[in-house]
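Re: the 457-residue chain
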Amino acid sequence: MKKTLVAATLASLAFSGGIASAQERICGTDIAIQHLIANNPQLESAYTQYEADVKQRTAALEAQNTNAAQKTTATYNVPVVFHVVLSQAQIDEIGGVSGIYDRIASQIDVLNTCYTGQNYNTDKGKILTQFQPLFGNPNITFGIAHTDPNGGGTTGVEIKIAPATFTGFDVTDNNIKKSSGGGFTTWDTKYVNIWITHITTASNGGQVLGYAYNPGLAQSMGDASLAGVVIDYLAFGRRSSIRQKFFGTADKGKTLVHELGHYFTLKHIWGDLPVGGGTCDKTQPHSDDDVADTPPQKDANQSTCPSGVKPNCTNSPGGEMYMNYMDYVQDACMVMFSKGQVTRMQTEFTPAGGSYQLQFNGGTLNWPTGISAVEAKNTFDIVPNPSNGVFSINFANTTADLRAVTVVNMMGQSVKQINTTEPANSLLIDMKGMPAGVYTVNCRFDEGIVTKKIVIE
């Protein structure tokens, strides 16, 4: 990355791509990385080497995948922890603490749909015919961690109420990732760390919806704690009611899909250049995404929902792949990764990849052994178990602080949720019509979550 690119990108924030009308989709990943390099010029070579390593690993995996006997078909199970830092007024905007948990559940569902290609049949009509054969399935599933780095139980969600004067965290600093800066300290790389907060930019107050640091890049830059994703609270989760507050059209959970693409090494589909500064001269540095099957594209399709063929830089059939998650279109129009992007992401799970260790920490998705205080206080039975889909949760004592019951399938997807406000000694759950299998029942109390398994036959 040339210093001129860094300077131009930062300057452009004041005049074009960095700020935009309130409804435009802005990703801060390139802004954050380029700001870091601008202030630490010695990191240019580290960034260049990181990019070269990713390309080399991708080429090796592409060569392997041409051999059907060696083709990568693994599923990668990824534990996630959410760090939430908002003022009480901002928490109230999204439905209080229960609203936070609701958005997290819906977001996990979106991630597991998009990162396992389950949306293909539903969204096929949004993919131009030319690109349908290029639809890729990353085979990455996400689940909320229930064991913390110290081996203790956790809901996988930490919430800190910021002062009433809180105006957000700047995309060009890293205070959100430091308890000393008012945020939450990064958990180790056994987890994907996701911070939910309000994001601002340094000098102009323009809105950034999210940004990400790849783990390998963060380590190359000399600060492994940078790894993770930061998402603005109004671009997080999926809308379930017209009354819910979201930022513009960023209401279907695709911002985090986009940012996790960056986390797993993907670039914007037009390259690293600032919005409005793209070029069709792909010999220029940072003007392409280094993925062979995404057509060369000059610039972002920002906050639009195109239709039909939009000519690309080479006027190849199909035009621009604007329905790609790594463009800037509206959430409703983002529906695919290409097969080449999938290969690049999967290199993260090879031994030299920054996310290699993630796949070996599935145990963090389980509650630790032993009886916690919340479990001792709030014991319950599920009857009958196995069940035909209708079962009761019977509490040993009438409980007044039960806040929600969530049923999760083996993919980590929430399939049933009941919010509660009144004391109860039992609840009837009807899941008739759900596929047979093992499900997890999470009962969330004020002081924590108690979980049990239910078998549906």
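The CA atoms of residues 210 and 231 lie 4 Å apart.
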